Amino acid sequence: MALHPQTARFLEQLRGLAALAAVEPPSIEESRRVLDAEYPLERPELARVEDLAVDGPGGPVPVRLYRPVPGAERLPALVYLHGGGWVLGGLENVDVSCRDLAAAARCTVLSVDYRLAPEHPFPAAVEDAWAVTEALSRTPERFGIDPARIAVAGDSAGGNLAAAVALLARDAGLPLAHQLLVYPVTDTARDTASWGDYGSGYGLDAKEMARFMDLYRGDADPHHPLLAPLRAPDLSGVAPATVITAEYDILRDEGEAYARRLAAAGVPVEHRRFPGVVHSFFLLPELFDTGAEARTWAVDLLRVALGIDREVDREPVSGPS
């Protein structure tokens, strides 16, 4: 379909910023400062929001715990991994979204402030994400969670990390309840039709994403399954999945290819391509009505996976799956 009018307005705002960047491309440090200054949104109140740390192979991994309700009940848990091309982002950038997810899904959310590239290339981010997930299973009493109901989620590069964690969990015998992959990076080839069609002018710039991907990959094999989950030889036995893609997104085709491979491997998977929108729409429900729709759909499926609700009406898939 054509660009949604809300998408067109969003892209018009981005064009002004892109024009400034074209004159003097910002450094990674400047990009981080700008991103960190862009989140003045109202923060919903929860019963508990606390900054903690989990031991990881590179040192303590900062996490932010969101608990939506008071009391001693052991809630299901969601490990959330932010996007930003493995180079940008942190706890503050997804704080409002994690609060919303915790409240709507009635689960404890652990947002992970994993190490960023280029200072810490692959597999540092995966190691940190796995350390937090494993800690939830190993010491659930510390977080007040039910170790039998742990899910992982992430957007963009965070979706890549969530898929990698799901692979590690399968191999370690740690049963995850679900993986929520929001326009995930699943490959390093950068050769799909969507990479070619939407690489410029649609929010997520292909050249910038390729640069970030190379900074994260470093000297690693580009086909390593924890870097490119689509290249994993076997996806059977990983956690059931929800995969969300956006029509006008360079990552669309690889996300949908991953959904197809999961289904072919016998993994229960729900996929929807949301029409007329671009990358980042899921995290911006205040700008995109479709973002709110996608959030509600994902949360409904997550609540079923975590044993909060018994079932949810399935929406028809939009686009190839």
TrEMBL record:
UniProt cross-references to PANTHER family, sorted A to Z: AB HYDROLASE SUPERFAMILY PROTEIN C4A8.06C, ALPHA_BETA HYDROLASE FOLD-3 DOMAIN-CONTAINING PROTEIN-RELATED
Protein's UniProt name: Alpha/beta hydrolase fold domain-containing protein
GO molecular function, one term: hydrolase activity
Domain Alpha/beta hydrolase fold-3: 78-282
Record's keyword terms, sorted: Hydrolase
PROSITE patterns, per the entry: LIPASE_GDXG_SER
Active site per the UniProt annotation: 156
Family per record: Belongs to the 'GDXG' lipolytic enzyme family.
